[in-house]
Amino acid sequence: MSAKGKHIIGMIESSSSALTKVGMWGTFAMMILISWDVIARYVFNSPLLFSDEVSGYLLVYICFFGAAGTLKEKRHVNVDILVNRLKTLNRKRLELVTYFLSLGFLLIFLWHAFVMVYRSYVRGVRMPSILLTPIWIPQSLLLIGTFFLVLQLIIEIRKSIKTFRSGEGG
Q1: Are 64 and 145 spatial neighbours (Cβ–Cβ below 8 Å)?
Q2: What's CA 58's distance to the chain center, in Å?
Q3: Contact 54, 126 (CB under 8 A)
Q4: Mind listing the pLDDT tens digit for each residue in 86-119?
Q5: Given this model, what pLDDT does residue 14 score?
Q6: In angstroms, rounded to a whole number, what is the distance separating the alpha carbons of residues 9 and 154?
Q7: Inter-CA distances, 72 with 9, 89, 142, Å
Q8: What local confidence, expressed as pLDDT, does residue 18 receive?
Q9: Is the pLDDT of residue 169 over 70?
């Protein structure tokens, strides 16, 4: 692979890891927000009116920003009772098929997410809530996270194909 290709892969993988770390801060922010809301509600009898809305946005942020880094580290939840019984070569083949199916699904998802964000932006849609948040802002979190997940998945497919070509697949 060329030096430029390695540099691009390195940038994508670094971005995946960085998004995961940013997502971790979202977990911390959500914990603080919910804790403060509980304290404000039961101690001061004055709940935060925006807590549920912002917590929902943070949940999307946490999930989608962590997805690419989780894939990079191969930390997604796997049900591998049957897969572990396969020979190594067949397991690698199944992994590659799964990657391609996932890529197809995610490309469709990414396109629809883009259309959703674009339409929300053009129409000026806002959440009917106290914050009146332009809905394209939290939707963009989903779009960004999915985009980096697609890029990371392409890298994983490339690694898997390289493993087959080098004869390490079985």
Answers
A1: yes
A2: 13
A3: no
A4: 888 888 888 899 999 999 999 999 999 999 999 9
A5: 85
A6: 10
A7: 11, 21, 18
A8: 85
A9: no
Tens of pLDDT along 20-71?
A: 888 889 999 999 999 999 999 998 888 888 999 999 999 999 999 899 989 9
pLDDT over 60 (residue 170): no
Angle at the Cα of 163 (from 18 to 14), degrees rounded to 5? 10
In angstroms, the CA 5 to CA 15 distance is 15
What DSSP designation does 74 have?
Answer: T
Q: Which ranges of 43-167 does DSSP label H, i.e. alpha helix? A: 51-72, 88-123, 136-165
Q: Alpha-carbon distance 47 to 37, whole Å? A: 6
Bridge partners, 134 (sequence order):
126
Chain centre to alpha carbon of residue 51: 23
- d(C-alpha 135, C-alpha 128), whole Å: 10
Inter-residue contact 69 to 16 (CB < 8 Å): yes
Radius of gyration of the chain (CA): 20
Other Cβ atoms within 10 Å of 146 Cβ, number: 21
- Is the torsion defined by CA of 46, 52, 55, 57 positive or negative? negative
pLDDT at 136: 96
Structure tokens at 40: 């404000």
The CA-to-CA distance between both ends of the chain, in Å, stands at: 23
